[in-house]
Write a structure and sequence with these properties.
The chain is an alpha/beta fold. It is built from nine helices and four strands; from the N terminus they run ααβααβαββαααα. It has one domain.
């Protein structure tokens, strides 16, 4: 075969290879997903990605001097990006319809080595849209939840609350373990009990664990509320966009 013919064959092979579909093996895709850290958007639809980009744009808004317009929110955002953990974002979930909540943070996978925890932040945008500002009214510190904010700012306020949960829960291996065991695990035990036994009385051991869970949740919510207040003040100061 002449050198010209050999060259033509190689060219045909390369052209065919480049034009062919070469799917990434499932195992390789799973391995890549297991390495992701920071804010992970893999679970968002194209429509949800557009909603998320508007929130992201707001977070990155800066003043003329180059500093962030919303320092508390942007600080939480920067922490999430460099924490070494993976935090998945979801903008819809069956939990949203079932519980009517504005948002939720949960630990999806606890890493005993504290190298890479996996958390999920669910923003229930439909519930946020429908929720009247204030809820319980104006607090003594002047906080009116979602008050005086536009649509994107409302999403950003709830995101700030859930990011505060993430930063607090992942602050140390001990706290992450405690939250995982006393909140996520106990909640799963309660759901499993109800699925198997319906409304039968809870056994004393599970009841005790639920009381301990609720006490911890109250502490966690108090911290997240204090951070949300700061986020709301910064957002409300600039007014709705």
């Amino acid at each position: 075969m002449s050198s010209r013919s050999k060259f033509a064959c190689v060219s045909c092979f390369l052209t065919a290879f480049a034009g062919a579909s070469h799917p990434i093996p499932a195992a390789a895709a799973d391995a890549a997903a297991a390495m992701k850290t920071g804010i992970v958007l893999d679970r968002l639809s194209q429509k949800e990605l557009r909603q998320w980009r508007s929130i992201e744009h707001l977070i990155r808004t800066s003043r003329p001097d180059g500093t962030f317009s919303y320092p508390t929110l942007s600080g939480l955002w920067e922490w999430a990006g460099h924490s070494g953990n993976a935090i998945y974002i979801e903008l819809s979930s069956p939990d949203c319809a079932a519980m009517g909540t504005a948002g939720k943070f949960l630990i999806e996978r606890f890493d005993p080595q504290a190298a890479r925890h996996v958390g999920v932040i669910r923003l229930c945008v439909g519930n946020i849209d429908r929720r009247a500002p204030g809820g319980g009214g104006t607090r003594a510190d002047g906080f009116v939840r979602l008050g005086g904010l536009g649509k994107t700012e409302r999403y950003a306020e709830v995101l700030g609350h859930e990011l505060a949960h993430a930063a607090y829960d992942f602050a140390s291996p001990e706290r992450a373990r405690m939250v995982h065991e006393r909140v996520e695990t106990v909640s799963a035990q309660f759901v499993a009990h109800r699925a198997e036994h319906g409304n039968m009385p809870l056994d004393p051991a599970l009841l005790q664990r639920l009381e301990e869970r609720d006490a911890l949740l109250e502490e966690l919510e108090a911290h997240a509320d204090s951070i949300e207040l700061l986020v709301w003040r910064e957002l409300a100061k600039r007014g709705p966009s």
